[in-house]
Design brief:
Length: 171
Amino acid sequence: MGPRLGKPLSRQELRAQVNQHQVHFRSSHESLFMSFAGLFMRLLGQKDFLRRVWLTLGRTIYHPSFVDDPYAYPGTVEHELVHVRQWRKYGPLFGLAYLLLPLPLGLSWFRWYFEREAYLVQLRICPDEAEVERLVEVLWRGYGYPWPRPWMRSWFRRKLLQWADSRRLGR
C-alpha cells in the first residue's frame, strides 16, 4: 500500500521509536555545543537559529527552547528520527558528509541526500504539489542551496507519483 499518507505517526508510535533508538531530547539552550553553533550561525546571518532549528547529533535531538513537549510536533520528531537512523547507519561519516561534502554551501549532494529522506516525512503527511514547493524552498533557503531547485522539485514529484501508483495498484 505504500506509505501511510495524510497524517503523522501517533504519539504512541513516536514514543516507541524514540525508545527503540534510545533518543534523548534536549533544549538547544541547555547545550554548550548548540550555544557555539548558534554563535557561528549568527555570524552567517541566522540570528534566530536557536529559536527555530531542530538538530540531531547521534541519538540526541535538540529542539528550540519554546518547545515544552517535543511530541506536540510529531512530523518534526519523525523527521529527526530519520536523522537518528542515518547517524546509526553511517556513524561519524554522516556528520562529515552532511556538512562538508562536496562543498559546505551549494551542490552539497550528501546534505540533499540525507534531508530528502527526512523530508519525505513531511511530504507523506501533506502529499500535494504545494508541499513539494514548500519543501524545495525550505531546502534551498535553509540548507545552503544543496541541489538545484528543479532537480529537487522533480525528485519529490516522482515520489508523489510512485506513492499514487502504489496506492492505485494496492501495494
